[in-house]
Structures are given as structure tokens and as C-alpha cells.
Amino acid sequence: AERCDSLQSFFQINSLGGGTGSGLGSRVLEILADSYPRVYRFATVVSPSPTSDDVITSPYNTLLSLAKLVAHADCILPIDNQALADICRRSVDIGGGGGVKKSASGFDDMNNIVANLISNLTSSMRFEGSMNIDINDIVTNLVPFPRRKFLLSSMTPLVTTSSSVMSGRLDQMFTDAFSKDYQLLKVDPKSSTYLACALMIRGQGVEISDVRRNIDRAKSWLKFAHWNQE
Fold this sequence. Notes:
Layout: E1 9-15, H1 19-35, E2 40-47, H2 58-72, E3 75-80, H3 81-89, E4 91-92, E5 101-102, H4 107-126, H5 136-142, H6 170-177, H7 208-219
Pfam families: Tubulin, Tubulin_C
Family: Belongs to the tubulin family.
Keywords: GTP-binding, Microtubule, Nucleotide-binding
């Protein structure tokens, strides 16, 4: 970090259920907050599944670690083990354009989904582009209050190690992004109120006019806080 010309942020990836992930992860975040208080800290945390987790201390580890995350992380991307397992077990239509692929249920597939999430999130830092954003803009735009820092993540198309990427229509991808089947947390995103929302699109051949049209279409079914309708 001391050798960086322009240190932008720290990314930490850890689990919440195990003792090492929750304990060491919390301690590292605390040290970073103390040593680099002005540098944003992103935490991608995997929460245990109530159906597949058999470690009796997981609920305690998770709750204690969450308290440290709220205190020391600037932005938190929670990933649900159950959501990952369901995605990998399901027959998913990659990109919504036909050609159903059966994805194997395994740790490689689950890890690959999380890796793709972080890769997409940081791509604007690592590649040149006319509309690239600074990674810290995510915190500026999506964390309106200091303690409201948990982001709901989704991706489309969903790609695992055992499925190939297929191109999908932009309209369908917008719809999928707000579907509960594409969320990396077991929730229905249409059932509550949004404080903020950001859509990051990668790839060639995407017209701004199509993006704006889909944003206007999404506004008709998304409920936003009255003070932030944009």
C-alpha cells in the first residue's frame, strides 16, 4: 500500500460463519481503519446458510463480525451461501437468450460467481473506457447514510465454471437483474424500498438510448425513497 501512487481502496473477502473468517477478518478491518482512515474499505462477506451450515458457533460468529463490519467497513457486499448454492443447482438460462445450461453444484462454481462479481465491480479501474467510474463513486452514490452500507448484489448473465457465456438481450438482462433468482442474497428486491440503485454494464455494442429506455421501464416497478427518485 505504501508503494502505491494512487491507493484507491481495500477489498477484503472473508466468511462470517467460521472463526478465522469472522475473527481475523474483523481484526484486519480494524487495523486498516486505524492505519488508513481515509482509504475506503470494501468487504465482501459470505454469510452462512441456515440449511447447509452445521457449525454451532456460526450464528454467534456472524453477529459479532457484523458489528465490526458496521464499525470499520465503508461498503459491504454480503453474499448468501444459500443463494449461491441455489444458483448452482438450478438450470439457468445464461443471459435469458435460450440454451439452458445445467451448472454443477460445487465450490468452484460458487466461488466463480463471487469472483465475477468483484471482477465486474473493479473493471473500470483496470481497463480504459470513456465512461469508467472511480470505484469510490460506488460508496458516494450507494451509501446515503453511514450505517446504510449493505448492498444487494445481482448479476446477469450468471456464469459458472461449468457453463458458457451466452449473449442476451439488454431488455431481458435488465429484467433479470431485479429478479430474485439472480440475487446473491436470498431476498426479493421488489418487495421493499430502494435508497439507491446502480447498474454497471460491460461489453461492446450497448447503446446509451437502450440503457435509458430500460431505466425508465425499471422505474415503473421499483419503489424508491421519495427523496431520491433518480
